[in-house]
Design a protein that fits this description.
Distance between the termini: 32 Å
Number of strands: 12
CATH class: Alpha Beta
Largest sheet: 6 strands, antiparallel
Number of domains: 1
CATH topology: Phosphatase 2c, domain 1
Order of helices and strands: EEEEHHEEEEEHEEHHHE
Helix content: 25-40%
CATH architecture: 4-Layer Sandwich
Radius of gyration: 17 Å
Strand content: 25-35%
Length: about 260
């Protein structure tokens, strides 16, 4: 199990963060990857897919390459407007997907490999979010937990269309089937948004190894019971393993405080 914790400064805010990743109780290998670029204020989680070795490689490529691409392009922006940063996110995520798809058909890659993505950039009092697949980002504010990312999955689309009920998701035959992921051949449509941060906000980035095992109500209770980011990560990971640990589990918790 990997664990990290640190405190960093962002303009107007102090960010305390913790991260934990574990292979769970069933899988032989952990194909999740997380990365934190403290000086940039970037937090990223990726869940690999596409076979025993391909999944691990895919998530590692995303975590290694995408932050560099974003940082490089950020320095070249003429304007740091909300629209400019959101557009940069869309372009860089799409470019990363194309590169991973090309890597998958090369001699050094694995055919069909791909990865999910969820990331947050903290800049100038706002959080910029980008996601692909079924990894999630939550905001915990004043005791209320809200999922801010949109899932690219078959069951999510069926739920939105009113064709299934929330209680049907866990046992649905299409559970786990993604409609968009990093490395896909078809055109990618990443989910991107931003919002203003407030003092006391807590952000949670995680793979489906957590959310398939622990419901939102339980996640909110754990966040409410654990005051610091690292203990919250540890408790969430423990809860997922106690519920069965059927998949790799990765969690980043970021606590936002005004300076």
């Amino acid at each position: 199990m990997e664990q990290e914790q640190a405190v960093v400064e962002s303009r107007g805010f102090s960010l305390s963060w913790g991260a934990a990743s574990d292979k769970g109780r069933v899988r032989d290998e952990n194909q999740d990857t997380f990365l934190v670029e403290s000086e940039l204020g970037l937090f990223l989680v990726s869940d690999g897919m596409g076979g025993h070795r391909g999944g691990a490689l895919a998530s590692q490529i995303v975590a290694q390459d995408l932050p560099v691409m974003i940082e490089t392009r950020l320095h070249k922006l003429r304007s740091y407007s909300r629209r400019a940063i959101r557009l940069l996110f869309r372009r860089m995520i799409t470019e990363q997907s194309r590169q991973l798809q090309m890597e998958g058909v090369s001699e050094s890659g694995y055919k069909g490999m791909g990865a999910t993505l969820v990331m947050a950039l903290i800049k100038d009092g706002r959080a910029y979010l980008g996601s692909v697949g079924d990894s999630r980002l939550y905001r915990f504010r004043k005791g209320s937990l809200v999922q801010l990312t949109k899932e690219h999955s078959v069951v999510s689309e069926l739920l939105s269309a009113g064709k299934i009920e929330p209680r049907d998701i866990q046992n649905h035959p299409a559970q786990g089937q993604l409609t968009h992921y990093i490395g896909m051949e078809d055109r990618l449509e990443p989910f991107v948004r931003s919002f203003a941060l407030k003092d006391g906000d807590r952000l949670v980035l995680c793979t489906d190894g957590l959310t398939d095992m622990v419901d939102d109500k339980s996640i909110a209770r754990i966040l409410d019971d654990n005051n610091d980011a690292k203990s919250a990560c540890d408790a969430l990971l423990k809860s997922a393993n106690q519920a069965g640990g059927l998949d790799n589990i990765t969690v980043i918790v970021v606590d936002v405080r005004e300076r």
